[in-house]
Design brief:
Rossmann fold; 3 domains; six-stranded mixed β-sheet; three-stranded antiparallel β-sheet; 10 helices; 11 strands
Length: about 375
C-alpha cells in the first residue's frame, strides 16, 4: 500500500499538470518565462496556493468590530487612508508566485496532449550507441537495495511449508539468508536516433523585436518536443539579410540588420552545414526558416526553390517555413512556396504566425504530422 504522503504528492503533481495545461496558451502567448533547470527539468511560475482562513460573519450584536461607521472609516487614533502610493512601507507579504519544477518529459507530454501531437517516426538510421541495464530476472545474490521482497517471502513460505513449520492459523514468515532473492540485470546495447535542428531567420530591418520574440518562444517549444522524441539533438543557428552566417543562440535572437534580403544565402549555408556535418543516412534533419516573407527578387526566389528541391528537401525529414507577420513585410515568399508545394505537402510545411496567440497553432502545423 502506498504511503499517504506519496498519494498526496501524486495528487499534487496531477493538479499542477492540469494547471499548466489550462494555462499553456497563456504561458506561450504572454511569453511567460519558463526557466531551464539543468538539462532535464524546468521551473514554471504559477500562482501560489491560497491557504484557507476564517473570517467573521455579519452579526447584529455588539462587540469588537461592531457599532456605527462604515467599512474603510479610520479607527480612532489612526490616520485615514491616503492616496494610493502614499504612506510608509508596510510589512505585509505581497502576492507571490510558486515556482513548480517539472521534467522535460512532463512538459513535453502536456504540450503533446494539448496539441494532439503524434510521436515522431525517425527517418535517420541508428546513431548513438548506449548501454542499458534492464532488470529482467531474479538472482540469489545482490545488494540489499535490489532485494525483491515479494519473491523473498515467497521462497520463505515455500521452505516453511516443506518443513511443516508453517501454521495457517498463526501465519508467521521469517526469511532466512537462503531465502533472499534479488533483482538481476542484463546489459543490453541500444541505438538511439539523433536529430539536428537548423534555425534560419531573416534579420533585415523589417523583422523587429516583436517578430524575434515570437520566433524565440516558438523555437523553445519546438525544441522541447523534439528533445522528448530523440536521445540526442543538436541545434544550429543561421541569420541572414543579403548575406548569411552561422551564429550562437544569443546572437541569433538579438541581431538586427538594416540591409535587404536574399533568402538564398541562408539556404546555401544550410546546405553546406548538412553536407559537412550531417549525413541524411544517420541524422534526422529539421530546417526551420522564419521570415516576414520579403525577398530581394524573383530570381533569388527561383534559386531558393532549386536549393530546396535539389539539396535541402532530399536530406530533411521536413522543411518548415514560418511567416511572422510584420507591417513592413509583403509575405510574398509564403505565396511562392504555397504555389510550388501546396498546402498539404509532406516535405514542406507552411505556417502563418500573425501574433503571439498564433504560436501554438503554428507549432501544431509544424509538428502535427509526426515527421
Amino acid at each position: 500500500m502506498d504511503h499517504p504522503i506519496k498519494r498526496d504528492h501524486s495528487r499534487f503533481r496531477k493538479i499542477i499538470k492540469g494547471k499548466i495545461r489550462q494555462n499553456l496558451r497563456r504561458f506561450v502567448s504572454q511569453g511567460q518565462q519558463i526557466i531551464p533547470k539543468g538539462k532535464e527539468s524546468f521551473n514554471i511560475p504559477m500562482p501560489s496556493i491560497e491557504i484557507p482562513r476564517f473570517k467573521f460573519g455579519d452579526k447584529s450584536q455588539g462587540g469588537t468590530g461592531q457599532g456605527d461607521g462604515e467599512a474603510g472609516d479610520p479607527v480612532q487614533g489612526q490616520p485615514g487612508e491616503g492616496q494610493p502610493g502614499e504612506g510608509e512601507a508596510g510589512s505585509d507579504e505581497g502576492n507571490k508566485e510558486l515556482e513548480v519544477e517539472v521534467s522535460l518529459d512532463e512538459l513535453a507530454t502536456i504540450l503533446g496532449e494539448e496539441l494532439e501531437l503524434p510521436r515522431i517516426e525517425p527517418k535517420g538510421k541508428k546513431q548513438i550507441e548506449t548501454q542499458v541495464n534492464r532488470y529482467t530476472s531474479i538472482g540469489t545474490v545482490g545488494p540489499d537495495s535490489l532485494r525483491h521482497i515479494k519473491r523473498t517471502y515467497k521462497e520463505a513460505l515455500k521452505r516453511q511449508i516443506a518443513l511443516g513449520s508453517y501454521d495457517p492459523n498463526n501465519p508467521s514468515i521469517v526469511p532466512s539468508r537462503k531465502d533472499f532473492r534479488y533483482r538481476s540485470s542484463k546489459s543490453k546495447v541500444e541505438f538511439e536516433n539523433s536529430a539536428v535542428v537548423i534555425y534560419m531567420m531573416d534579420v533585415s530591418g523589417s523583422m523587429g523585436d516583436e517578430q524575434k520574440e515570437i520566433v524565440r518562444t516558438e523555437s523553445f517549444w519546438i525544441n522541447l518536443w523534439l528533445k522528448s522524441q530523440y536521445k540526442d539533438i543538436e541545434i544550429r543557428y543561421i541569420i541572414h539579410d543579403a548575406t548569411a552566417k552561422e551564429v550562437d543562440e544569443e546572437t541569433f535572437f538579438k541581431t538586427r540588420e538594416s540591409g535587404g534580403t536574399l533568402i538564398s544565402s541562408a539556404y546555401k549555408l544550410c546546405k553546406s552545414i548538412i553536407e559537412a556535418d550531417y549525413s541524411p543516412e544517420e541524422w534526422n534533419i529539421y530546417p526551420f526558416h522564419f521570415s516576414d516573407g520579403d525577398n530581394w527578387s524573383s530570381d533569388d526566389t527561383k534559386l531558393c526553390m532549386e536549393l530546396l528541391n535539389n539539396s535541402i528537401l532530399p536530406s530533411s525529414n521536413v522543411f518548415c517555413y514560418g511567416q511572422v507577420e510584420s507591417r513592413y513585410g509583403s509575405g510574398q515568399f509564403y505565396k511562392d512556396l504555397q504555389a510550388a508545394y501546396g498546402n498539404n505537402s509532406d516535405e514542406v510545411i507552411l505556417s502563418k504566425i500573425k501574433n503571439r496567440e498564433a504560436i501554438l497553432d503554428s507549432i501544431k502545423d509544424f509538428l502535427g504530422k509526426g515527421k
